[in-house]
Amino acid sequence: MTEKMIRIFKILNAIQARPGISAKELADVCETTERTIYRDLRLIDLIAPITNEGYGKGYRFAGNFAIYPLNFTEQEALVFSMLPSVIDTSKLPPGFESAHDKVMATHFKEKSRHKDIIENIAEVIQMGTPAYREESENFLYPVIQAILAQKTIDAVYHTQSRNETTERKIDPYFLVPRDQRFYLIGYCHLKNEVRTFRLSRFRKVVITNKSFDKGDFTITQYLKNTWSIERGEEHIHFKVKFSPAVARYVKEEEMFVRPKMTDLADGSLLFEVTVNHEREFLNWIFQYGPEAEILEPKAIREKVKEQLERWTTRYR
Question: What separation, in Å, do the N-terminal and C-terminal C-alpha atoms of the chain show?
Fold first, then answer.
């Protein structure tokens, strides 16, 4: 069994080092027969995507698969680190222990490098502090760690709408920047559904050892027709006319939905988009003041007129 394990490592390394290597060449490298190599390849096929493109083409890894850099899971690293203690190393060829040490050293160096990169990213990104709190702990680093490792987090979260703080387990899927804030999108075990969490409202974040799988979840489908981050169940089709003075600036805006924009003869811009919630879209429209006119829907146009009348009364 030990000899087979070492031979499999040799085969993997040989295929990566020499894509297109033949079964005969692999047999020479491993000092065994071609029949044994074919048996080993059937076993290896269960753990690595090896392909043979036809007679005389040899073997290679499919796609972008590689065995370096090492991408051990925590469990795989633990199992491999225990290998010398569960086999009789005296029966192994010379060099096994030094080779094992090099593999483990590479794993820990790679893991340390990834940790440093994430820490540096988290430090570079500057986050604000909620006005009602003097200090706010930055949970950006552990959240990014948990997303990359696909680990569930134990969190304490404050829901502003109910002024309520709860303990939750969350599978963190994606970190989304919106309007100078970060939002975490993930599966909430407390509510048994995918939810959106504002990062600054977390009071505590601890990474657990529990792994998760996103399944068929896609961020594109989840945020479809969402103007910024606030999701709704409606499909509201807006038509807005922007004046020539701001039309070119509207075209330059970076958006999360794809609008239809039509240049009009007088230099103005007809802007059409379908969103699932009106509030964030209207807030965006309001920044252009009288340079933006809502044409449709008629009901929202009337609602905005009433709001402007109340503002006028307030400032009169």
Answer: 89
Which pTM was predicted? 0.61
* Token pair belonging to 234: 């409606």
* Residues 174-195, mean pLDDT to the nearest whole number: 90
* Pick from 72, 49, 57, 69: nearest CA to 18: 57
Q: Are residues 85 and 154 in the same domain?
A: no
User: What is residue 121's predicted lDDT score, i.e. its pLDDT?
Assistant: 66
Q: What are phi and psi of 194, to 5 degrees?
A: -75, 130
> Of 222, 247, 272, which one is at a domain's C-terminal end?
222
Q: What range does the domain containing 201 cover?
A: 140-222
Q: What is the pLDDT of residue 85?
A: 61
CA gap 274, 239 in Å, rounded: 9
Locus of tokens 């795989």: 76
Band (pLDDT 50/70/90 cuts) for residue 197 is very high
User: Are 211 and 254 contained in the same domain?
Assistant: no
